[in-house]
# Entry
Amino acid sequence: MTWVFDHAWMTGVFGDKAVAAHLSAEVQLAHMLRVEAAHSRSLGNERAARAIETAQICPEDLTDGTAVDGLPVPELVRCLKAQISPELHGDIHRGLTSQDVMDTAFVLSLKDILPIFRQRLSALQEDLAQLAQAHGDAALMGRTRMQAALPITVADRIATWRMPLERHLDRLDEISARVLNVQCGGPVGLLQAGLRLRRRWAWQCLTKAGTPCAMDLANWLSLVSGSLGKIGMDISLMTQQGVDEMCLRGGGASSAMPHKQNPILAELLVTLSRYNAVQLGGMHQALIHEQERSGASWALEWMILPAMLHCTTRGLSAAQELLAQVENIGA
# Structure
């Protein structure tokens, strides 16, 4: 087992088809070609841009070169030049770096992924509101440090689930503004391409000129999944035999104890939350980079951010599925 998000059977628990599609090798390659074409067009070479757009390259063509170069862009440029007339080569990848291409391609995927978060967060808020309307007046025992404290209502507990989600939605526009920017730093990251060129290139990529901030996104993803983990933990405890504050339809079977009905989705929310919390530390490690560009820190982002996106989108869908299983809440 190498990657639970698209493993043959583990994807049934951890996988999210929506985000997986936007992060696939095929989509990332298409975005890299789009960036290369936009740059050639911004240099005034329409012929080179069109030739890039019609080039026939598949992800497997980049495998061997990536193993040697440590990233796919040098081989991508070689493949392009092998298919395109030599008189156009001067305006293919001229002034770009591999980071410009790869980071902007990732941003183009994020441009499609971030609306998924908005839709799912909004839908989850609606589901929680409906749950509060249906069961909110029922009594619960409020618990502090896992001990009985004072009586509360179901609405009181659901309110603690909803409040952070509202903040996450409010912050999404701010996060989008910081993340959805083209990376056009040039050879040593000093934006040598010039403001006018960067703006034209950004316009063609349908995003903004600037520098994408991956750390802001990672922080937000961990906060969202942490809020979902809180919901999962509470529901796991509420469905515990002997507590019986919530009854769920369905649930997971035990191979050894047929009488059991495990709160699989609630547990999954806790797992995904803890995973993202661990990954956030790795992203903070990626902040420590040497001089103008680091291969090690940059590669660390490639490993971590896609997994955090998977965890958060899957957590949002799992939370909705979990709430749909609720039959009754109350002591």
